[in-house]
Task: structure prediction
Amino acid sequence: MKPTLAAEELQRNLTQFLTTTFALAEKPVREALERFLTHPEQGIFRGPYLRIRTPFRAAEEGWRDALGWAPQDFMPYRHQARAFQRLSSLNKAPQPTLITTGTGSGKTESFLLPVLDHCRRERAEQRPGVKAVLLYPMNALATDQAHRMNEYLRQPDLQRVTAALYIGDTPEVGYQRVMTQRAEIRRNPPDILITNYKMLDLLLQRADDLPLWDDACIAYVVVDEFHTYDGAQGTDVAMLLRRLAAATGHSTVSGQGEGRPLGAERAMVSEVENRLGKAGIIAASIGPEGPKLYDAVHIGTMHRFKGLEYQRMIIAGVAEGLVPSHRVAQYERGDALRYRRELQRARSLLFVACTRARDSLVISWNGRRSRFLP
Result:
């Protein structure tokens, strides 16, 4: 097909369609409309234009050093190799990365190979649980990714890596290496979870889906088609990702270098629980499902208590940001107005927590009693 002839035919067909739509009876008027539509300067057509796209640069030698595993016949572009260096978890922590390249440039492989490499390494060390969440705005994109994932997982080196597709409707097409049945996914949490933001919201709420997050150690959250999350939808997804981080112990705290994971809070909760146990006080940690021992002292972080009611509560290591003492303190000298506003917010949040405890409440900050008690 010659581009110039195809452009002329397309222009002729569109002009015929528009003139037929208006169905002008008088020939002079009909011809005037056609001249108006096809005018080289003021008409509706431009071009045709020739777009020359130079090939993407190939990666340099040694790109495999960033990964522990990669397909034998795979030759990446240079931007993919740079993404591997940032996203790889080999002997280091993955770095937040934004990948923006043209169509057909292999954006998916840029993050997918480091994710598969990480899961392969974790499986070899007998570590279960969800390790990566791939988030898509539409089911069609998630299903397409599941098909590609299924092809990768057929390779012998990835036999132990598991993946699951969790979308609104159970796909009619089954995959050999990608789970699609919800009961199976709950029983055997996959290494890689492919879903959309609406289903992820439900997965963090429904009690039946809570086992999916058992032993989760999420190293990757991939937000594909990132440009589609704007406006109110972007805000919703941002809050959703914060909830995911809080629920799985991966929330970070600004103002403390690279950030401190919420997993440190869990360690503090366990420490408080152990200390109470040594003192002969029955203690029970709080999970999303609520209290397990109703006659015990309940221990947890602020996001675990919000909206719930207990006899006695201990909120230990409140570092997720809902009671941001370190964030409040940083404004005390430089921004008096911001300091008062943040201080009032922190006190209001603690007041809400106090109303949930009918008998007693103890709030600690890294082992120290909180300065924001009402």
Q: What stands out?
A: Confidence is low (pLDDT under 50) at residues 253-265, 302-310, 316-326, 364-374. The CA atoms of residues 194 and 254 lie 28 Å apart.
